[in-house]
Design a protein that fits this description.
Radius of gyration of chain B: 20 Å
Structural class of chain A: mainly alpha
Number of helices of chain B: 10
CATH superfamily of the largest domain in chain B: Endonuclease Chain A
Number of domains of chain A: 2
Oligomer: heterodimer
Strand content of chain A: under 5%
Number of strands of chain B: 13
CATH class of the largest domain in chain B: Alpha Beta
Largest interface: A-B, 20 and 25 residues
Strand order of the largest sheet of chain A: 1-4
Chain lengths: ~500, ~300
């Protein structure tokens, strides 16, 4: 059975997602290229002028045809396919040498074979639309339900996009959208629309910069600060960082290293990552329990599962570290001895687990060590402790870094074995049962990884622990699309942005 | 639609004021969070749950999700039987008719939403007919499980009976276990044998072998180590062909015992596998198709 990554089986990821959504509003994990923002502003304005119909079917047809056309242009370029929706379909369509004219009416219907995308309203409906509304690029009309470009941001961006691609390309694009066809040799004439064809210093480029860095509200401030932090990390590292570089640097950089004005944002990202490490470690314990159940096809009584899983985890810790865990060793001692460990190595082992192979002993031990390391790290940091309650406002059912630290801190004098048993019983097994039950009741999704029958728990699935994906990949690509970030770190324009914020 | 949602679905029978539900395994969280709201939605204010005593005890263990509404919103009762109490029946009764669902699904999260299950649904109105006779037979069986000793369970049944007048009048019909339907098929109810009565197996075989059997299909998560039950069914029904539907990933099928038997074995989890349009099956199911029937109708037993 394939594992469902991102399932959040312990309900702990949700708290972290709230934090990163707050730190990077207007950008999502599925908004992959900055220029789509301008494309949709232009499309919305062009649709109003050319089609002018307020029914959603006609709008949907325009959206789907525009996206398919965009994919065809990208696939034809052969160099620019990253983050363009429908590009796989487009590549196959172009490979069919049936005609000099590419027809795409059928592929942009909502039903039938060989659609460019299954989702009815295209990638606009699935990804960009909500972010464009959130950013104020698109707004609501008084007399119909279709999105319209806002006066303040949307219309200027539509005009800038139009000017950037030129009148000839615009006429060609509109004709292609209206007829759902385009001559092969004309695709090259539309390459000026592609994601990496934003001209540095152009009005269009400046408007994107304004959206990302100068939206005058608190959301805009938080987005700006995160983007500046990415540039600051790039400057520190002297390269174009990947998302892991960013999150680990923000996690480990001493306060103020990346600039005092950005310190509150850095601290927030540190809290996010700390929380994510904790949820990863708990997920590692869940994975361990599932492995133990997997070795018993007829299942285990819950008490036997807890005992076996805890015993194996503590034994792994003892054997692999070459230390003797005395029966009296308490959790507080474990925390104290974990402070100097490198959490990145522990994280890497847990994130690297892949079903169906069972978690190796060092990884099981690593989950316990990571929990202790996170606790030790937080307890050394008054600034973190002060900020935590503001970042995690959990209801009685919620679980986050704060709730798990409270659980651990009230049990510091318990023996390592007893604490491990409690962790597994209460925070892993019972917790997963609660979370899965809630998902089933509310969403009708059956996500139980084990079932209870005849007094035993039996494994139904496996789970690979995973860190959440905090929009940093999209944000980095946006900075590259705008020419603010390159392989060697921030560009001159990027450094200007950083210096202006210092 | 998930199985449990069916219980809240209007059956065109008016309010179904009472429910009697039986199960082997029970998870009180699933009962209270999933089933009860459905029963209530169909009009129930009188709910009786009959569960295997051992499983009910395990469900009340300290580390289990304990019931919060028992005694207030429903009554739990464990029948005293020899062996385990294994039927899965839901009877929803009202003044205008009733719905009976018999199948393999326990009152657990997995039984109600995570497994492949097989259920049969029979609806009846307050007017006489084979479906009503079937429901009355089910009611009689359930009534017999509680006994006559005063108990909240008996109170629940008496409450149901008092508000379902057609049950009493229909109970006067001749005792029968198989009823012909208007489409030429038959409806039967085989429960625990009364004293002196043949076993469920014997009664099923007697009914299914009234005509030559063309195909025998059996599916189950659990199997005898020597496949004795499969061999007994093949011997008794002499089917032209036999198919066993198994879940290889569960590693519970005795491969060695199957060697040499006149059977074909199929992976129920294989991509694209479909036994029938509403393919939901778990637990034990045996289906026998008479060879001579003009429009073959499977005889099915679930347990």
């Amino acid at each position: 059975m394939p594992s469902k990554r991102g399932l959040d089986p312990l309900g702990m990821q949700a708290g972290g997602i709230v934090v990163y959504q707050d730190l990077l509003p207007g950008i999502s994990n599925v908004t992959l290229r900055m220029r789509y923002y301008g494309l949709y502003a232009w499309l919305s304005d062009t649709y109003a002028r050319k089609a002018g119909k307020t029914d959603s079917d006609t709008w949907r047809r325009w959206v789907r045809r525009t996206e398919a056309l965009y994919a065809l242009v990208a696939a034809d370029s052969k160099t620019e396919t990253g983050g363009v929706a429908g590009v796989d379909w487009a590549g196959k369509r172009l490979a069919i040498a049936d005609s000099d004219v590419i027809e795409f009416a059928t592929a942009t219907e909502t039903k039938g074979p060989n659609l460019y995308l299954q989702q009815g309203m295209g990638v606009f409906g699935g990804a960009y639309g909500s972010q464009l509304r959130d950013l104020g690029v698109l707004g609501a009309a008084r007399d119909h339900d279709l999105p319209v470009p806002s006066e303040t941001t949307g219309l200027p961006l539509a005009l800038a996009f139009r000017a950037a691609i030129g009148e000839e390309a615009e006429t060609l694009a509109i004709s292609a959208i209206e007829t759902a066809s385009i001559a092969r040799q004309d695709l090259i004439r539309l390459r000026g629309m592609l994601p990496s064809a934003i001209v540095p210093g152009s009005t269009e480029s400046l408007l994107y910069g304004d959206i990302l860095f100068a939206t005058p509200d608190s959301k805009g401030d938080r987005r700006r600060d995160t983007l500046l932090l990415i540039l600051a990390v790039a400057r520190l590292m002297g390269k174009g960082p990947d998302p892991a570089d960013v999150r680990w640097t923000l996690f480990g950089a001493p306060a103020g290293t990346l600039g005092e004005p950005l310190e509150p944002a850095r601290l927030a990202w540190e809290i996010y990552h700390t929380h994510d490490l904790m949820q990863l470690a708990f997920a590692g314990l869940l994975r361990h329990c599932l492995d133990v159940l997997g070795a018993a096809p007829v299942g285990l009584e819950a008490s036997v599962l807890v005992e076996t899983a805890a015993d194996q985890a503590v034994k792994a810790l003892s054997e692999l570290e070459g230390i003797t865990i005395a029966p009296t060793t308490c959790w507080a001692e474990m925390v104290a001895s974990s402070l100097t460990l490198n959490p990145r190595a522990l994280e890497k082992a847990l994130s690297g687990l892949r079903a169906p192979s069972p978690a190796p002993p060092q990884t099981i031990a690593g989950a316990l060590r990571l929990i202790a390391n996170v606790q030790a790290r937080v307890e050394e940091r008054p600034d973190l402790i002060e900020e935590l309650p503001r970042r995690f406002r959990m209801g009685p059912f919620g679980r986050a870094l704060t709730t798990e630290l409270s659980f651990l801190q009230t049990r510091g004098d318990m023996t390592l074995m007893d604490l491990t048993r409690e962790l597994i019983a209460q925070r892993v097994i019972n917790r997963h049962a609660q979370v899965a039950a809630q998902k089933f009741v509310r969403q009708r999704d059956y996500t139980f990884l084990f079932e209870q029958a005849e007094g035993r728990l039996r494994r139904r699935g496996v789970y690979d622990p995973v860190l959440t994906t905090p929009r940093l990949g999209s944000a980095i690509t946006f900075l590259r699309d705008l020419g603010l970030l390159g392989d060697a770190g921030p560009t001159a324009a990027g450094l200007e942005r950083l210096d202006a914020a210092a | 639609m998930k199985l449990f949602e069916r219980y809240g679905h209007p059956a065109g029978l008016g309010s179904l004021h009472s429910v009697v539900s039986t199960t082997f395994n029970i998870d009180f969280g699933a009962l209270e969070q999933l089933l009860l709201p459905q029963f209530r939605g169909a009009g129930a204010s009188n709910v009786l749950v009959l569960a295997d005593p051992s499983m009910a005890s395990l469900a009340l263990a300290p580390d289990a999700v304990l019931p919060l509404k028992a005694g207030k919103d429903y009554v739990v009762f464990s029948p005293r039987r020899r062996g385990v109490f294994h039927p899965k029946i839901v009877l929803q009764a009202g003044r205008g008719g009733a719905r009976v669902v018999i199948g393999s699904a326990n009152t657990t999260w997995s039984g109600l939403g995570g497994n492949r299950e097989v259920v049969s649904e029979v609806l009846c109105r307050a007017t006489p007919g084979p479906e009503q006779a079937f429901v009355v037979a089910v009611w009689s069986y359930l009534r017999g499980l509680v006994g006559d000793q005063p108990s909240p369970a008996l109170d629940a049944l008496m409450w149901l009976e008092a508000r379902t007048p057609w049950l009493a009048s229909a109970a006067d019909q001749p005792a029968q276990r198989v009823w012909p339907l208007s489409d030429g098929t038959q409806l039967g109810f085989f429960a625990d044998p009364m004293p002196g009565e043949p076993s469920i197996f014997a009664r099923f075989v007697a009914q299914a072998s009234m005509a030559p059997v063309e195909e025998l299909v059996i599916t189950s998560p659990y199997w005898d180590q020597d496949l004795a039950s499969v061999k007994a069914l093949i011997s008794a029904l002499a089917p032209a062909r036999t198919r066993l539907l198994i879940q290889p990933t569960q590693r519970l099928f005795p491969t060695d015992a199957a060697r040499g038997l006149p059977i074909s074995v199929h992976d129920i989890g294989a991509p694209g596998f479909r036994l029938c349009p509403a393919n939901r099956m778990r637990s034990a199911l045996a289906s026998a198709t008479p060879r001579s029937s003009l429009s073959p109708v499977p005889a099915t037993i679930t347990c």
